Amino acid sequence: MSLTHRVPDLGALELLLAVARHGSLGRAAREVGITQPAASGRIRSMERQLGVALVDRSPRGSRLTDAGALVTDWARRIVEAAEAFDAGAQALRDRRDSRLRVAASMTIAEYLLPGWLIALRAERPGTAVSLQAGNSAAVAALLLAGDADLGYVEGLAVPDGLDGVVVARDRLVVVAAPSHRWARRRAPVTPAELAGTPLVLREYGSGTRQVLDSALVAHGGLAAPLMELASTTAVKAAAVSGAGPAVLSELAVSEELASRRLVEVPVEGADLRRALRAVWPTGPRPTGPARDLLSLSRAR
Length: 300
Fold this sequence. Notes:
Elements: H1 3-6, H2 10-22, H3 25-32, H4 36-50, E1 55-58, E2 61-64, H5 66-97, E3 99-105, H6 106-111, H7 113-123, E4 128-134, H8 136-144, E5 150-153, E6 162-176, H9 191-196, E7 200-202, H10 207-216, E8 227-229, H11 232-240, E9 246-249, H12 254-258, E10 263-265, E11 273-281, H13 288-299
Parallel strand pairs: 3-4, 3-5, 7-8
Antiparallel strand pairs: 1-2, 5-11, 6-9, 6-10, 6-11
Helix pairs in contact: 2-3, 2-5, 3-4, 7-13
């Protein structure tokens, strides 16, 4: 038989210690926050479990038996050990809750996370946040290695080994400098034309590249890139300079489109929408600050 069947639970032991302090079952019941009948039932249950009488009840109060006094000494050690255990566990929670490691793909890190982290700071001002930005594959690797508590990715699906939830929707857009011939065309670009044109692209492993590859696979796949760059900022700079058309999140190019440094090129017949996801290692949902950031990102 396991110890859980032979040793009284902590609540019963705390009640026995309260009886020893007060010499009264009624006052002991009030201290632990239960009724006197419930306290009497708990003492009787503990006596049956141990096979000895612990408390003598009389009109003058409740007195521990000799066996009850001995059990009380043992109970005190168990309760003190439980308090030490709880204090240690709280220290671990405090240490966990004092930091948050976030990994995010480029678009989310640059255009969405700053607002989420400002909101988190208002709720948890004592939490130190570190952010690592990379492509979606790099985010997955950090989470699986235990080097991040929560991640955000832009790919087509949740990476292997992770669980996730959609927090936002996004759309890729084709953009070009105003001087590029595509900026002046009247008819939308077709998927085949987009696939066959060398573009300024993000690298393999990025969520942007995954979505674009998937959208054009039925049209012959992407032509060899004009340039392949590892950051959204670099892709934008190349497109603004007139190097060639680029494909980026509409979140990333809103300012350039508004200022006419870039022009959106309509595309017809290609699905360039995507989901933005929060992800974590397969298993229980994140706790502590990671749970709060997840809630904030979903709400916003």
